[in-house]
What we know:
By secondary structure, the chain is an all-beta fold. It contains no helices and 11 strands. The protein has strands spanning 3-7, 10-13, 18-25, 33-39, 46-51, 58-60, 68-74, 77-82, 91-98, 110-111, 115-120. The strands form 2 sheets. Strands 2, 4, 5, 6, 9, 10 and 11 form a 7-stranded mixed sheet that branches. 31% of the residues are buried.
Amino acid sequence: xxxxxxxxxxxxxxxxxxxxxxxxxxxxxxxxxxxxxxxxxxxxxxxxxxxxxxxxxxxxxxxxxxxxxxxxxxxxxxxxxxxxxxxxxxxxxxxxxxxxxxxxxxxxxxxxxxxxxxxxx
Length: 121
């Protein structure tokens, strides 16, 4: 069974930085792309960033471009470096894995449990 485990969330002041990690385990044959999504209170889960299996291609939501960087150490480990954080970034952040590299929530088959990121003003 595929499992994604996240770490690195917590509380940070506006303008600060955080680094989220995601590690995949189990039967990960179907995981090529890895991505990050977030869900703020009262809102739907939205795309943040995604990366191809070899790391050559990345996608970003416009609101985080230039501030966030997605990377991966290998096929089973991904990171999200978040700089210049804003209160609007406050949300539960989810790691996701799937066959194809897309920005669509429904295209990802595997999900982590989510980790809370809170940015204070």
